[in-house]
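Recall the central idea of this unit: under ordinary conditions, the amino acid sequence of a chain determines the structure it adopts. In this exercise we apply that idea directly, starting from the sequence alone.
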Amino acid sequence: MLTALFSFLMIAVFGKLFLWGIKASWGITKLVCSVVVLPLVLIGLVISGLLVLALPILLLIGVVSLFCFRKPW
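Accordingly, the structure predicted from this sequence is:
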């Protein structure tokens, strides 16, 4: 009986830690993609001569970032 209780509580605790880790890694991934990867892709498009493609992407991201309101912490 104690083994079953211990197993249940252990799964509950480490399950919560696992979900917290997934949430943290998703936040870090979003930050890295928006701060590092996206500007590098846009710079690469401009350097390779695809300004016609880079400019609409940049405008779309700018408009979305202006009108999307973030939740206050």
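DSSP finds two helices and no strands in the chain.
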